[in-house]
Amino acid sequence: MLSRKQRLRDKQRRQLKVLDAVEKHEKKLATIQEEKERKIAAIEKDAADEAATVEREMAKTIVEAVDVFGSQQSAADELGLSLREIRRFLNQEDEDEAAEAAEASDGADGAKGAADVQAGAAEGTVTEDPAAGGAAAVTSSAAASDVVPAAEVPAA
Questions:
Q1: Mode of pairing for the β-strands spanning 135-139 and 125-129
Q2: What is the full DSSP assignment across 86-112?
Q3: 13 — phi, psi (to 5°)?
Q4: Which residues lie below 8 Å from residue 90, measured CB to CB, with a gap of 6+?
Q5: What pLDDT tens digit does each residue of the chain (156 aa) get?
Q6: H helices within the chain, ranges in order?
């Protein structure tokens, strides 16, 4: 026969085991919930990206339809869209083209800047000299005879 004290300790030990199990399952549930929320966010992002892609493709198709039918009104009539919708897609296409042009310009500027940095690292510092009409000027720790004036650089 166990003493009262021993029975209370056993009971307390069992309660602690149950409490530990509950906490463990709560943590597991929280982890599952976080993973579920991450997956939902990823799915929503993918859906939004897909919707934006479809909108861009639709805008391109509307531009082609306007070209084929000759006018916005004719395209609207043939496609069963309102003139307002046709104009919205045309504006969207204009905005997309402007954004693509800006990205291409930024990419070209970035490539030119990287080339200037590489050239500067190899031969000195490359800067634009406003006094020379914007021609590149190279400053280097090398002898002055190693620097070719901009006017003497052969055309590519």
A1: antiparallel
A2: HHHHHHHHHHHHHHHHHHHHHHHHHHH
A3: -60, -45
A4: 59, 62, 63, 66, 72
A5: 779 999 999 999 999 999 999 999 999 999 999 999 999 999 999 999 999 999 999 999 999 999 999 999 999 999 999 999 999 999 988 888 888 888 888 876 655 555 555 555 444 444 444 444 444 444 444 444 444 444 444 454
A6: 4-69, 72-79, 83-123
Compute the Cα dihedral for 45, 46, 47, 53 and give only its sign. positive
- pTM value is 0.48
- Between CA 59 and CA 55 the distance in angstroms is 6
Q: Please, what is the Cα angle at 69 between 65 and 74, to 5 degrees?
A: 100
Q: CA–CA distance from 70 to each of 20, 102, 155 (Å)?
A: 74, 29, 47
